[in-house]
Specification:
Helix content is 70%, strand content 1%. The chain has a two-stranded antiparallel ribbon. It starts with a helix and ends in a 9-residue tail after the last helix.
Length: 419
């Protein structure tokens, strides 16, 4: 008799004794089957969404260029107490050896670029030092390096080198808030000429809030009209709201680029109608950014409010009017409160999407309209400062989560719906 034949009666008795066991086993099989079906999606999201974002966020506290280029110097500086005393002569000797080795291995350029983020001119200092090291007279490097450049005789230079020669550092996060660690190991504001990131965050929030408010003012009446028109007319009007979703964002932004030019359609109409004596500046400034972003994000506000309004019975407002309330008062005190979930949903969607906008401000904005997403792209593409880009992204994610928490508390994320 096989083992299966021996155990089968036992299993049958178990199911007879506890019928819930069979039900739980069936549920587990269904859950496992559903999980296996979702595995491809989870793998895709992990590879294309979670891993890149996690890697970028990790870079906000990771700095390996300098420690990989000058490992011996980094180990010695870890035991150096810091200013006002200079490091030991052995540290000078090790630095000279590390710099020459890093140049041969090709890791010096990345370290110099990383140090230049700490102190402008540090890259020139390293490259100049490496070039002149072979021509030294053979005396101790604690005497030769200050002769190559006097900054090697300053404790502040070595303090900056020590801070950069660590694998994990909060410096990127501090820089993203226009802060740094001062000589006395306290956090101090950076020079006013270098303080740009806090203003960029404030500007980003200001533009996002302005776009959200304009979208609400323009989108709420359109949503009300869509919800209260006869079905045939409402469906026709809905096409004009949905059509922008079928058009590329770049195409829509480029269209505004053409329309808002000094000799574009809008200025030609204004001048031709006599409203203005000449072309007015509608692009490369805040006006162009607000117009472009409002046009792109307005459908989100309309659809969010429409989804809520179409479920509101008109009898409530009619009842208020029949009881003596003015139609305007009945609208404000009876109808509008019922649409608050739609207002909250539309506001949340538009504001969060506006926080990370890049193309429209880049094409239609001016020098004073740079949003934080543009600065992140600049740090990655041109400055190659991935650490600072990661730190800026961290704060952007934190601010977005804060908006999400407020929205969930006031409105509820379960009411988030479109159409």
């Amino acid at each position: 008799m096989s083992a299966m034949e021996l155990t089968s009666p036992g299993r049958a008795r178990s199911r007879t004794v506890d019928p819930r066991a069979g039900y739980r086993a069936a549920r587990r099989r269904e859950a496992l089957r559903a999980f296996l079906l979702a595995v491809p999606l989870l793998v895709f999201l992990s590879a294309t969404f979670i891993y890149p974002i996690g890697k970028l966020l990790l870079m906000s506290v990771q700095s390996e260029e300098v420690v990989n280029a000058v490992p011996g110097t980094a180990a010695l500086l870890a035991g150096w107490p810091g200013p006002p005393e200079l490091p030991s002569p052995q540290t000078f000797e090790t630095l000279a050896a590390d710099l020459q080795k890093a140049q041969q291995e090709g890791s010096l350029a990345a370290a110099a670029r990383r140090l230049n983020n700490y102190e402008p001119g540090f890259r020139t200092l390293l490259l100049k030092t490496v070039r002149q090291l072979p021509s030294t007279s053979g005396r101790p490097y604690s005497e030769e390096l200050p002769k190559i450049d006097k900054r090697w005789g300053e404790a502040e230079t070595w303090r900056l080198l020590k801070r950069a020669a660590t694998r994990y550092t909060p410096d990127f996060l501090l820089t993203a808030m226009d802060r740094k660690v001062g000589p006395s190991q306290t956090i101090v504001p950076v020079e006013p000429s270098q303080a740009i990131y806090v203003d960029a965050f404030i500007r980003t929030f200001s533009i996002s809030a302005s776009v959200t408010l304009i979208c609400l003012i323009l989108g709420y009446p359109v949503a009300w009209l869509l919800a209260n028109l006869p079905a045939r007319q409402s469906n026709l009007l809905m096409i004009f709201v949905i059509v922008p979703f079928w058009t590329s964002l770049l195409v829509r932004t480029t269209a505004w680029y053409v329309l808002l030019q000094p000799n574009g359609v809008v200025n030609s109409l204004l001048v031709g109608s006599g409203l203005t004596s000449g072309p007015i500046a509608l692009m490369f400034n805040r006006t162009g950014v607000l117009i472009g972003m409002t046009h792109v994000l307005l459908p989100f506000m309309i659809l969010a409010n429409y989804a809520v309004m179409r479920g509101i019975p008109p009898v409530y407002q009619r009842a208020a009017v029949s009881l003596g309330a003015h139609p305007a008062l009945a609208f404000l005190r009876v109808y509008v409160p019922q649409t608050m979930p739609g207002i909250g949903t539309g506001t949340f969607l538009v504001f969060v999407l506006a926080l990370g906008y890049y193309i429209t401000p880049a094409l239609l904005g001016g020098a004073g309209d740079e949003m934080i997403s543009q600065i992140v792209a600049l740090q990655m593409d041109r400055q190659l400062n991935w650490g600072l880009a990661g730190a800026l992204s961290v704060y952007l994610v934190i601010f977005t989560l804060a908006v999400y928490v407020v929205f969930n508390k006031l409105v509820g994320v379960d009411r988030l719906r479109l159409g």
